[in-house]
Amino acid sequence: xxxxxxxxxxxxxxxxxxxxxxxxxxxHDGHLKVLLLEWSxxxxxxxxxxxxxxxxxxxxxxxxxxxxxxxxxxIYLRQFYAFGDPLxxxxxxxxxxxxxxxxxxxxxxxxxxxxYWALVxxxxxxxxxxxxxxQCSWVNVTKIPALILDHNHxxxxxxxxLRLSLNDYPVGKDLLSEKxxxxxxxxxxxxxxxxxxxxxxxxxxxxxxxxxxxLKEKKKGGAHKSPFxxxxxxxxxxxxxxxxxxxxxx
Amino acid sequence: xxxxxxxxxxxxxxxxxxxxxxxxxxxHDGHLKVLLLEWSxxxxxxxxxxxxxxxxxxxxxxxxxxxxxxxxxxIYLRQFYAFGDPLxxxxxxxxxxxxxxxxxxxxxxxxxxxxYWALVxxxxxxxxxxxxxxQCSWVNVTKIPALILDHNHxxxxxxxxLRLSLNDYPVGKDLLSEKxxxxxxxxxxxxxxxxxxxxxxxxxxxxxxxxxxxLKEKKKGGAHKSPFxxxxxxxxxxxxxxxxxxxxxx
Lengths: 250, 250
Hints:
250 residues, homodimer
């Protein structure tokens, strides 16, 4: 679809007043980043977002949007919140009108946006900007610039949801190597939570969830005592993703 | 608004394709119920739901909807999920057309619905049906009839969210007396989780959250040893509601 057609006739293809915004968090070696797009000609940064086709499932729309706008594939997205402030409309913030949009365009009206987040290993996920964007980049969560509309608030809410989800769902598959050490897993949790955790408590709690399998081999090559290697029990991990961590215990 | 005007001109007042459905859970004396409405003339049960006015905040719409449809006031609602299946439309399930609605009416189209839940003390919350409904009743969560559209699925998801939220947020204020015993609080958790909890583990975990205050007085009148009375520390309870339970610890 051309940008002109999108701006003038978008409502023929998409549900009006409804959008999707995706907060793709990237983890690598102790850093947590988020994927941002820069609108061409506007010098404005925003989340990768888009709209829902009339006969498309909303969750499918989220996957399609991330793929179309950033090039990333096979991203596991979790819906986390719907943002329903009536001031969420570009007409209220004139300077943020996309180039070529008229004031009465469908895209200038009020939008309720559904937020999704994902957590990926960013060194493996190389983003590509789409036709609307001049850049698509991983930005450190501590250094996010002022974004359009309420996108900064959406990222805050997504970060809260990601952190709370550590209580409820397992995290780590696809982010760590297949075999990993306890300190590597702890570092992932510390990065997401942005705080130090007690080594012994962490080990005790994470083992009590019953989703880890300790291997006989140890990690080699370090200067200190070789640490044990672990891997996720695939069946229990999947079960916990579906039912929550508490259900998987015992 | 008359029913005729609502069906014919609803889009003048409400955002199209968007609805809200509220799952109001009621707790009392070991029972967990949910508030359901019966459509007049249709013999169909459903959740109390409604639509978002063009300039209204979505969260305000949810509060208004519960009030208008059930008479309940001051309900603390938590948004939990948006349901985006393209089959969510009354045109796909002909028998569920509201009396007086035409096939091309706005209300027959696809709706994405935003789910909210609340937990109240049902013996204190006496519901009143609105003009669209012949009944508004508390129904035991284990005895819910077949509801319209995907409303049974919405209740299941709300129940999952309510149960997970026990890990993240405090529960009990406005559901128990101001002063309560540890067994009374445990019974509330057991009712919501629908399982027995170990007395000692429960007490240890709930005290570790730091939101309870043990009083000097004990409960009188029982046959056995008088149990201690507790109450919530208001400041810490409110903080935990905002920031999550983990943040309130320490």
